[in-house]
Specification:
alpha/beta, methyltransferase, Rossmann fold, 24% helix, 8-stranded mixed sheet, iron, OB fold (Dihydrolipoamide Acetyltransferase, E2P), 30% strand, 3 domains, single chain
Length: 429
Amino acid sequence: MPDAAETTITALGAGGDGMVSLPGGETCFVPRALPGERVLVGPATRRAGALHARLEAVLSPSPARRDPPCPHFTEGCGGCALQHWAPEAQAAWKRERLREALSRAGYPDAVVAETVTTPPGRRRRADFALRRSPGQALVGFHESGSGAVLDLAQCLVLDPRLVALIDPLRDLLRRLPALRKEGSAVVNLLDTGPDLLLRTDGALSPPERVVLAAFAQRAGIPRIAWARKDGPVEIAVQLGPATIALSGVEVAPAPGAFLQASPEGEAAIIAAVLAGLPARLAGRRRIADLHAGLGTLSIPLAAQGRVAAFEGEATAVAALATAAARAGVKVTATRRDLVRQPLTVAELSAFAAVVLDPPYAGAAEQVPLIARSTVPAVVYVSCSPSALSRDARAFAQAGWTLEAATPIDQFVHSAQLEAVIAFRRGGRR
């Protein structure tokens, strides 16, 4: 597609861009275009090994096209990909993506539940890009397909309490020489207030620490952590505790710790995981929770049996162990790198069920061992359909039955999809 042309969008790619099949068989991606639309696109350029074309005009819009509710979307904000698509169409597409991923894995007849969609304005975690330019500091998200930072004035997917921090943070950065050119600000909304991890490309001076303390006091931030680029994290300001209740148990996460994106998304994942367990756990009712993090799943699983939680991040293991001991929850937390040292087939034999919530890359090292083990039940929490498809293939090849599949959309208006899949060894329960 060397020149501007009219074309028809045939489907959406995994990133939410429209797709056009070119005569030579190659695919061209068109951001902000929807399936079935007749569009005018600009000349295609190659980026990251794929062809991309700019959407010039929508000649025949999809019935599901909507006016984007956020003005930043039309400015090119990369935080969202699908604001121009009706919510029900997004939910149906995400459900179909999960069905296709499971079909590729060897489960063509998988019954997939309706998509559980969390509401907008509830995202409790933000990773803001920071950029200093002459006379100003930018706080926002990267522009779509670009390293440029779009300065935010509002955001419809973030919790309003996070949005309210954007202007004060921008004002702070103007007075913080430690931000020379670029940095980041990860904010987790905890029960005790926003928890800020600030990364800059310059050193933080003693006077700047005083500025941070005053900012924390004004903004109601109990803790500000700081690091230089990818260096070690240190606590710059601590005005009070930084805690969050996970299934009723108070946990003290490290700065920047991983949390499920929204309370509603967390609740939907927990509900699907518990529903995916056998009605009666065999033997000593032991459950392994792999990639356990802070214990988002370990803690509610403890109501079903004794939980052995495995996690590679030392601070998360410490936070979970402390919280479980204080609350008297039946969880034992162990630090273990499950990529380098997955649980063996022999170790897995001790468990009546395995729950795993791996990172985006999946659990390629661990899943084949689980599939060969004597564990009777597995619940897999996925945040990547492609990784899920690869990992689920091991269960299909070993004769496991897929019992339930629930797509969960807690990143509204994005192409990201989470899912909870329940597998059983052999036939249905």
